[in-house]
Design a protein that fits this description.
globular; 323 residues; disordered N terminus; Rossmann fold; twelve-stranded mixed β-sheet; alpha/beta
Length: 323
């Protein structure tokens, strides 16, 4: 579990003993594939393992056109049959090949797990190359998309989860609608990046408040950003002119903490006004708005009324919540 992994003196997750793990939630929406592109950049030179996950609803009446179940599974995993989620995962796989992140020559292992009440169960293909890099395409069955994603996050001990947010108008099995995305962000124990047509090369806009958790989150974000060679810009908001010195102090503290782990900050600034409005105004020009969840563990409901939650709901660009 995440809590059992070693941390350094300011609480940053360390991954010396295992490969960096990225979970990309795929639902066929453009936002989910935008998140996949960012994951590829984050895992450049195969320094990270990728898992592409599609969660489909439990369906004991799933039709396979009269084929025997063993044959249906084999065809599904060989991309020979259009079953729920396979078109979405196949597109993700083809994108990885087109981007040069994997090759058709990689070794392939098929994994199947029976699920009570569903004829096809959980199925995945694990691709590996000679250097040990791993890409997993997983089609999971669950009572809900939300529950399936959260179960995978817990089971896989991922360092970051990337999830799209499709519109309510998009229909079909496995679609990740805003309530599902918000529930995953609320309950995930590790960072979640919510991709909305994620534009690259504009940097991470890391927002820090006056808490120690925000300082720790700034370091975690700097480490994640360094994986994709993305610049980090620090920002803090004072609600009044009297709070400006405190805002400048917390930005300086975050910058110092980032530099202590051997990373750099591209720029920093402070603003005065309503935190939500200022973050949305200043953050729209960056690839990613990054915020810490500073709610107390066990009282995650307070996150739903926090500045981070409001920014996540209202931002037009991508947002990452760090825990």
């Amino acid at each position: 579990m995440v809590n059992d992994r070693p941390i350094d003196k300011i609480g940053v997750l360390m991954n010396d003993e295992k490969q960096f793990q990225i979970l990309v939630c795929i639902d066929g929406s453009e936002a989910s594939y935008s998140g996949l592109r960012y994951a590829v950049r984050m895992g450049g030179d195969h320094t990270a393992d990728l898992t592409l996950l599609f969660v489909r609803p439990l369906d004991s009446g799933l039709s396979t056109g009269g084929l025997q179940m063993e044959v249906a599974r084999e065809n599904m995993l060989k991309w020979g049959q259009e079953l729920p989620g396979m078109r979405a995962l196949k597109r993700g796989r083809d994108m990885l090949v087109d981007m040069g992140f994997m090759e058709d020559s990689w070794k392939e292992q098929v994994v199947h797990t029976d699920v009570r009440g569903d004829k096809l169960g959980d199925n995945s293909i694990v691709y590996t190359n000679e250097e040990g890099a791993k890409i997993t395409l997983e089609m999971m069955v669950s009572h809900s998309v939300e529950r399936g994603i959260l179960d995978e996050i817990e089971y896989g001990e991922y360092d970051i989860t990337i999830i799209g947010m499709c519109s309510e108008d998009e229909m079909g099995p496995g679609k990740i609608h805003p309530p599902t995305t918000m529930a995953v962000v609320d309950q995930s124990p590790t960072p979640v990046l919510v991709a909305r047509d994620l534009e690259q090369d504009h940097g991470h806009f890391m927002c820090v408040d006056f808490t120690e958790k925000a300082i720790e989150a700034a370091v975690i974000d700097a480490q994640i950003a360094s994986r994709c060679h993305c610049p980090v810009y620090l920002f803090s908001v004072a609600e009044s002119e009297d709070e400006l010195p405190k805002a400048r102090e917390v930005v300086a503290k975050a910058k110092s903490a980032i530099e202590e782990v051997g990373l750099q900050v591209a720029g920093d600034t402070v603003g005065v006004g309503d935190p939500v409005e200022k973050i949305l105004e200043e953050g729209r020009k960056y690839s990613l708005i990054v915020m810490a969840d500073t709610s107390v563990k066990g009282f995650r409901r307070f996150f739903q009324t926090s500045v981070a939650h409001q920014v996540l709901e209202r931002a037009e660009n991508s947002v990452m919540i760090v825990r």
